[in-house]
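Lab notebook, bench 4. Still working through the backlog of constructs that have no structural model yet. Next entry is a single chain of 63 residues. Request: give me the structure tokens for it.
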Amino acid sequence: MSQERDLGVIADVCIEANDIIQQHGTLEMLVLIRHLLFVVGRELAVQSKAGTAPDNPDDTSQA
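Model written out:
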């Protein structure tokens, strides 16, 4: 699995965690997950700008 695909998986898992934390977590947890989502999103944007991000990160046929 490439680093680009790893970031896509990380983003998906963080989004799921964000949903759970919004329902059941503390304010501190919410701040941390939002920061993590920001960092992952920023890295995805850097890779996209560099042309290294996959066209369809949900496509697992390239594994």
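Notes after review: The chain has a mean pLDDT of 84. Helices lie at 3-24, 27-50. Flag for follow-up if needed.
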